[in-house]
Amino acid sequence: MHFTIDRDNMLSALGTVLRIVPSRSPLTITTGLFIKAGGGFMEMVGTDLEVTVRCRMPVLDIGREGEVVIPARQLFEIMRRMAEGKIEIDSDKNDITVVYPGGEARIAGFPPEEFPLAMPSVDTGISMTIQEGLKEALRSVIYAAGRDELRPVFTGVQFEVSEGILTLAATDAHRLAVYELKTDTTEPCSIVIPAKALREVERALGQEEERVLVNIQHNQASFVIGTVEIYTRLIEGRFPDWRAAIPQGKARTMIQGETAGLVRAVERAQVLASGEVSTVIIRVQEANLTVYSQSELGGLKENVPLFFEGEPVEIAFNSTYLLEALKAAGNEKVDIELNGNMGPAVIRTPNAKGYLALVLPLRII
């Protein structure tokens, strides 16, 4: 294999694929990158056996088609220290030589035929196209997914399609985040996709809205975003009935106003909270909304100018959970519905109708 490519294009592909490559693995070859040259493109693939990322970049010239597997970290560390310009990649059996202005580097690789390259076809199963909004939806829900591998279904995000609406939901049993957006399919489905894979999808979407093609098979899903493709196994198991956790009817206490002031107050209160769970208290009474925290480090009491109506209440939260839900709302205005000091808080935004977050309170001792 021999090809010439712009150093920045090569580095861009490395930056896209490298994140999913494990630094250590029982299967050593998965610490490498599969690189193939042909048809005017360089294709780069990385995998941790659960999630696979593939990126294609145009090359300046292909002298000889072929494929290699190269240790990912070493290739990236060398490449990012090179000057801009053209570089040549030349392979000899399992090794490659990188020729750059002023020098060359030889890197020992792996047999490419041993790389676990199997990826599902994007032409079968249920397909949907999302024209816009997926990046915002992912940003708004992924934070609520759990990290306990002993409960794998909580480490994923539910994708549910009904009547042309795609609903994303994530929960770790202490909080919930939901976002709705339109899609072009009416075929109903409900699957659970690993949050780890969706973080790669979010990164691949970049700063601009991009059209995303999603393909779902019985145990796998793929996302095609321009020149990047992401493949992942689905999580088996039944996702919890999160709709049953959302209080129905009118809230006992309603708080409305700008998000920024409440976020800053809770952040300041968090500094003086301590313990395994950083606790802040929201007290609503006598025309005041006050944020409190107290610990051996000291205490904080701050009034926040938000409108409220309904019953007085004093309710405690895990400050991290509350902050993440407020920040994920991503809006200047927020509506917070409270249902007593042990009922869940429901957070909505007037301008993003598809977003909803739920945070369970802590018991005040």
Question: Could you list some keywords that capture this structure?
Answer:
6 helices; single chain; DNA Polymerase III, Chain A, domain 2; alpha+beta; eight-stranded antiparallel beta sheet; 365 residues; 17% helix; 26 strands; nine-stranded antiparallel beta sheet
Describe the structure.
- By secondary structure, this protein is of the alpha+beta class.
- The protein folds into 3 domains: 2-114, DNA Polymerase III, subunit A, domain 2 (DNA Polymerase III, Chain A, domain 2), CATH 3.10.150.10; 126-242, DNA Polymerase III, subunit A, domain 2 (DNA Polymerase III, Chain A, domain 2), CATH 3.10.150; 246-359, DNA Polymerase III, subunit A, domain 2 (DNA Polymerase III, Chain A, domain 2, Roll), CATH 3.10.150.10.
- It is 17% helix and 43% strand.
- It has 6 helices and 26 strands.
- It has helices spanning 7-17, 72-80, 134-141, 195-205, 259-271, 319-329, and strands at residues 2-6, 32-38, 41-47, 51-58, 61-64, 66-71, 86-92, 95-100, 103-107, 126-130, 156-162, 165-171, 175-182, 189-194, 212-216, 220-225, 228-233, 253-258, 279-285, 288-295, 298-303, 307-310, 313-318, 333-338, 345-348, 355-359.
- The strands form 4 sheets. The protein has a 9-stranded antiparallel sheet with strand order 14-11-12-13-26-25-24-18-22. The chain has an 8-stranded antiparallel sheet with strand order 6-2-3-4-17-16-15-10. Strands 5-1-7-8-9 form a 5-stranded antiparallel sheet.
- Strand 15 (212-216) and strand 16 form a beta hairpin.
- Helix 1 (7-17) runs antiparallel to helix 2 and helix 5 (259-271) packs antiparallel against helix 6.
- The longest helix has 13 residues, at 259-271.
- The chain is elongated and about 75 Å long.
- It starts with a strand and ends in a 6-residue tail after the last strand.
- The model has no long low-confidence stretch (mean pLDDT 91).
